[in-house]
């Protein structure tokens, strides 16, 4: 049994999704080069590390130094998460404060909140090539763990030089508590969890007392198990899918939505029904196997959506250029935006509609905003939640603070504009600032095309993805296919083809400047 979207089809969740706190970088591990191996990694350490990772289950390996990049996957085939590019500058900012053991803590906090358990690979010995901060990494990890109430322990040491271990794995464990839902759940951000001047998962400072109370109530619903979930679902709580780097964030491949378009109907309709294939099923049910033409949708970050909701329709229409504004579906509650601004294919105009759509699409929870077709056939009375439930959830999403910026890079911003990126990724759409989207629908070429028409969009058209919070995402593009900024940029086509060509024909310094700028978003 699958969910069908007929005359009122519905796409899955938007955005070019999520990277982790640190960008994936192009550093490689070059054996035997002392300039690249400041801690003199030796073959003994590599062998011991590889054997340990192969026989010991655990969280992902977080690489904390450029010198360690490539070692975990080279010796064991296990994936790594590269933290070095974000951690280095964070520690460098307080390099002249030797007694400050919190250097880099906020960067590590964001990573800890993305995983139930994470293993940090750190150097224990430095030599004359190391002029940096690596000896302070363990202090930063301990401080970050304390900030979020997590436990930290040493798991193992590897290799020796003159009797001193070369590498160590430090494990940070947030515990195994569960509310009964499947997979990872989002954690409440700690009081000290500040990231680049903003507080991810926290309410906007301008909320009234009543809005703040509604935000708090919605946050409770967001992180607990949904009522009458299923029979097919991708997650059993909202926070389960929106967890990276913390509550209200983006998603991963574990809770991804799969959708496909059936062939055109024989009655002459322009396209067939859109079908949702959810990954999990309640006991007694069997989830359908997705067809070959299935496409992925990864949960978007929700930070700052309340400001996006308030962008006037006229502002979006005026910004569309060669693209076009998509019409919002006709249900929902205030504000009554007629121009869509939410969804990969842009068909939702306000946050209650967005919330109701995702309840149905992701967790199979029938609700009044999805109309008569919102019936999951599980034997429970439909709708399974009422409008008040949706509005309470919407109050949390609406009140989430935007991610803010992490500094600036003047040369990179010049490259961003000169390549033409800002034509569609408009920096400001008041009252949403630093949002980097025009919220219009554009043709994106054959590489990105998914063949799924929806509402006012065609199979090769997508809404411009907001770039706010880009530095916190693990995966890029709407389906998470890209793991680097380079591959995400060059996958653009159609109306963005000329901007990609400008990027490819630019100097190496200009391209690097653009990527540095994107790391500030």
Helical region count? 17
Using the alpha-carbon principal axes, give the shape.
globular
Q: How many beta-strand segments? A: 13
Secondary-structure class: alpha+beta
Largest sheet: 5 strands, mixed
- From N to C, what is the helix and strand string? EHEHEHHEHEEHEHEEEEHHHHHHEHEHHH
Order of strands, widest sheet: 3-2-4-6-5
Low-confidence stretches: 1-40, 126-132, 176-198
Beta-strand proportion:
5-15%
Distance between the termini: 41 Å
Mean pLDDT: 77
State the helicity in percent bands: 25-40%
What is the secondary structure topology, with strand pairs?
Elements: E1 3-5, H1 43-55, E2 61-63, H2 71-76, E3 80-82, H3 84-92, H4 105-112, E4 117-123, H5 137-147, E5 151-161, E6 164-173, H6 209-223, E7 232-233, H7 238-241, E8 257-261, E9 274-277, E10 280-281, E11 295-297, H8 305-309, H9 313-319, H10 351-363, H11 387-399, H12 410-418, H13 421-424, E12 441-443, H14 445-448, E13 461-463, H15 485-490, H16 497-505, H17 508-518
Parallel strand pairs: 2-3, 2-4
Antiparallel strand pairs: 1-9, 4-6, 5-6, 7-10, 8-9, 8-11, 12-13
Would you mind describing this structure in some detail?
By secondary structure, the protein is an alpha+beta fold. It has 17 helices and 13 strands. The strands form 4 sheets. A 5-stranded mixed β-sheet has the order 3-2-4-6-5. A 4-stranded antiparallel β-sheet has the order 1-9-8-11, with no helix packed on it. The longest helix has 15 residues, at 209-223. The radius of gyration is 23 Å and the shape is globular. The model is unreliable at 1-40, 126-132 and 176-198 (pLDDT under 50).
């Amino acid at each position: 049994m699958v969910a069908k979207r007929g005359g009122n089809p519905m796409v899955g969740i938007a955005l070019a999704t999520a990277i982790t706190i640190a960008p994936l970088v192009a550093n490689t591990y070059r054996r035997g080069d002392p300039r690249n191996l400041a801690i003199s990694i030796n073959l003994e350490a590599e062998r011991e590390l590889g054997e340990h990772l192969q026989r010991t289950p655990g969280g992902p390996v977080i690489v904390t130094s450029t010198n360690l990049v490539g070692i975990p996957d080279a010796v064991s085939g296990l994936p790594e998460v590269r933290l070095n590019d974000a951690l280095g500058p964070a520690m460098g900012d307080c390099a002249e404060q030797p007694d400050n053991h919190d250097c880099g803590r906020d960067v590590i906090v964001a990573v800890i909140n993305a995983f139930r358990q994470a293993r940090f690979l750190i150097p224990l010995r430095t030599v004359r090539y190391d002029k940096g901060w690596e000896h302070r990494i363990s202090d930063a990890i301990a401080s970050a763990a304390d900030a979020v109430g997590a436990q930290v322990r040493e798991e193992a040491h590897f290799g020796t030089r003159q009797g001193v271990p070369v590498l160590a794995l430090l494990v940070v464990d947030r515990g195994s508590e569960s509310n009964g839902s499947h997979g990872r759940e989002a954690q409440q951000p700690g009081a000290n969890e500040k990231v680049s001047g903003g507080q991810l998962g926290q309410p906007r400072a301008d909320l009234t007392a009543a809005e703040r109370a509604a935000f708090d109530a919605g946050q409770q619903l967001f992180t607990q198990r949904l009522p009458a979930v299923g029979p097919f679902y991708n997650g059993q709580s909202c926070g389960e899918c929106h967890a990276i780097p913390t509550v209200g964030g983006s998603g991963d491949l574990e809770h991804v939505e799969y959708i496909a378009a059936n062939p055109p109907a024989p009655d002459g309709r322009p396209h067939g029904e859109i079908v949702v294939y959810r990954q999990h099923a309640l006991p007694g049910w069997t989830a359908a196997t997705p067809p070959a033409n299935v496409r992925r949708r990864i949960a978007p970050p929700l930070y700052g959506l309340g400001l996006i909701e308030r962008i006037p329709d006229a502002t979006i229409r005026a910004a569309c250029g060669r693209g076009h504004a998509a019409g919002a579906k006709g249900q929902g509650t205030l504000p009554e935006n007629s121009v869509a601004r939410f969804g990969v294919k842009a068909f939702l105009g306000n946050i209650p509609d967005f919330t109701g759509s995702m309840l149905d699409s992701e967790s199979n929870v029938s609700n009044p905003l999805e109309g008569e077709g919102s019936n999951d056939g599980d034997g429970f009375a439909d709708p399974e939640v009422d409008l008040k439930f949706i509005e309470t959830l919407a109050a949390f999403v609406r009140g989430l603070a935007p991610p803010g910026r992490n500094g600036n890079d003047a040369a990179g911003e010049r490259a961003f504009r000169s390549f033409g990126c800002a034509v569609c990724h408009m920096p400001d759409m008041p009252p949403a600032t630093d949002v980097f989207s025009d919220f219009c629908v554009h043709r994106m070429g054959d590489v990105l095309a998914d063949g799924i028409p929806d509402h006012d969009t065609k199979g090769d058209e997508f809404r411009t993805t907001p770039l706010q919070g880009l530095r916190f995402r693990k995966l890029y593009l709407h389906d998470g296919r890209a793991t680097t900024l380079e591959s995400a940029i060059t996958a653009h086509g159609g109306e963005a083809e000329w901007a990609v060509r400008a990027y490819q024909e630019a100097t190496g310094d200009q391209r690097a400047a653009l990527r540095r700028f994107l790391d500030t978003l």
